[in-house]
Amino acid sequence: MTTRREQTSHESSELILRAAAELFAAKGYRQTTFADVAERSGISRGSIPWHFGSKEGLLLAVLERSVDLIRTGLPEEPAEGAEPEEVAAGFDRLMGGADALFAQPTTKLFVTLLVEALEPGSPIHGRYVEIHNTLRDHCRRWLERLPLPPGLSAETLAVTIIGAGIGIHQQWLLAPERVDPEQALVALRTLVDGAVLSAGE
């Protein structure tokens, strides 16, 4: 049975993680301080290292939480032997889920932290790679059940879909007045639907 103290500790951790994710996405990892996180979360500054040890530990915890949120939000994969119509309907749900995923603040966090992940010896490199692998693998397994144009593999199309979705948000962060991510994602979905539908005819 969870004690009141354990419950309070868990609630505090969640508040800190949510605040840190928002700040890392908005300001970047290097520009965010414990004082910023404390102010945003309403939790004392001294409690942050008590929960996460260091700023690096907090960043890793934020990414771990993001991976869990992504996995929870992904639709179930098609069953073996599913009818083509069922798989196609499921893929439509997958693309809808991708729209929702790319619209989340979490995606902005991935874009913001890209530079951090690419630095030699980065503590988040492995976790960042895992996030991309999770998205690509899930998308690929759906695509493997669908008729694709000759010469186009499910792996390649999965890379294209995930890369385009994140790239759209990267452009939006750089020029929000010129880029509409919702419309761009609709265009991406239309292109993918067209390729799949034409291959199935």
Automatic annotation (TrEMBL):
Q: Output the InterPro entries linked to this UniProt entry.
A: Homeodomain-like_sf (IPR009057), HTH-type_TetR-like_transc_reg (IPR050109), HTH_TetR (IPR001647), Tet_transcr_reg_TetR-rel_C_sf (IPR036271)
Where the record puts its DNA-binding region(s)?
33-52
Q: Which SUPFAM superfamilies match?
A: Homeodomain-like, Tetracyclin repressor-like, C-terminal domain
Please provide the record's keywords in A-Z order: DNA-binding, Transcription, Transcription regulation
Domain called HTH tetR-type: residue spans: 10-70
A Pfam family the protein falls into: TetR_N
Instruction: Give the GO molecular function terms.
Output: DNA-binding transcription factor activity; transcription cis-regulatory region binding
Segments crossing the lipid bilayer: none
- Is the keyword DNA-binding in the record? yes
**Name of the protein in question:** Putative TetR family transcriptional regulator
Q: Which organism is it from?
A: Streptomyces lydicamycinicus
